[in-house]
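Here is an idea for our session: we take a single protein and study its fold together. To get us started, please write out a protein record for me. Start from the sequence, derive the backbone structure tokens from it, and show both lines together. Go ahead whenever you are ready, and we will take it from there:
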Amino acid sequence: MSEPPFAGAARQANLGDACVAVVGLGLMGGSLAGALKMRRACRRVVGVARRRSTLDEAQRRGWIDAGATNLAAGVADADLVILATPPRVIIAQLDELGPAAPAGCVVMDLGSVKSAIVQAMERLPAGVYPLGGHPMCGKEQAGLEAADPLLFEGRRFVLTPLERTPASTLALGRALALAIGAQPLVLDAETHDRMVAWVSHLPHLAALALVRAVMVGARRDPQVWSLAASGFRDTSRLAASDLTMLLDIFIANREPVLATLQTFQSELTRLGAALEREDEPALRQLLDEAITQRREVCG
């Protein structure tokens, strides 16, 4: 990755002097804007949102210095633009952003799927410097109301540079992740999408399938929902996630998600087969392997 020829490249690693435009002030964008302001990590934060009421609330909380409902107006003075909208919206915004972004501007995103977004970033003008990003955190709630400036604390923040991404842009991405309390990790987009399909996208599908399965049971025993306690709430929590986000994730990362789903179905079949055979040693081994792995990873 070669350094760009313009003088502004040297400023990219200096987050403290940057004007950051956050496009989309939902859970992720609102949390990011709040984290930047709370930590005084940059010179200025500008929010871009569809509704003026969202901008007013973000400003009331002290999470942005100014706001705009128009993308071009919001990024006009930005050194760093961060797209914090659903993946398919990000792809559309990148095409709109190309002619609007100032020369020398860095464009990042927070999308949970990287390959499709990185491909769209290739269409940005030569004087605009792209870097994919995905903080590994979130909640099932959506919107500015759910935003939390501490959301990124101790979390991995994946950075997916393009071939054209200069070293100074990647340095700025690292600085941003560290400034909000996250841990930067550089991956290529394909590897990222394959890995998050296992540990992020498949859990959402599993939670959704669980709820749908209980819906079937509830047709016979409607009171089953009144018995749902912490076990059901914990395992089904992700099924309460934002619908638009889920659709974008599954469609944009379709092939890796399908691969993980096939493996998940195979594991369910193995467990069911051992139970059907009343093969307690086999069932014990399958359960013990999973319990041990879960404890090693999550404590």
Residues 76 and 135 are 25 Å apart (CA to CA). Residues 192-298 form a domain with the 6-phosphogluconate dehydrogenase C-terminal fold fold (CATH 1.10.3660.10).
